[in-house]
Specification:
By secondary structure, the protein is an alpha+beta fold. The chain is 50% helix and 15% strand. It contains two helices and three strands. The chain has helices at residues 52-63, 65-107, and strands at 5-9, 27-31, 43-48. 2% of the residues are buried.
């Protein structure tokens, strides 16, 4: 197989951080774009965990896709607002520092 795509799904709710290099996915599928799966080199399931828990979890994600995307959008907008507020605060601090330095020079204070 020359090039191609991999889809890996990880479901390990007991872990807080997943080291992708050392953690096995519950599903790993590989496929070639624009080709029919003629043989195993073109596409196939590299790994499938038969545990129903992850399958139920991904089904819930699919069912709640709209609300999950809306929540992600809200969080992204909140993060942008926080970043903007932080940048504005930093600009004010910088302006105050510059003004203080100008005042200090004018008064002969170093």
């Amino acid at each position: 197989m020359m090039g191609g795509n991999d889809v890996k799904i990880y479901h390990h709710p007991h872990l807080t951080n997943i080291d992708l290099a050392n953690t096995r996915p519950v599903l790993h599928v590989r496929y070639m774009m624009g080709t029919f799966c003629i043989d195993d080199d073109d596409c196939g399931v590299a790994y499938f965990n038969e545990d129903v828990e992850w399958q139920t979890a991904i089904e819930q994600v699919i069912k709640n896709k709209k609300s999950i995307l809306a929540q992600m959008d809200r969080e992204s907008k909140d993060l942008k607002r926080e970043k903007s507020a932080t940048e504005k605060h930093q600009e004010r601090v910088e302006q105050e520092r510059n003004q203080t330095e100008k005042d200090a020079k004018r008064l002969g204070i170093q």
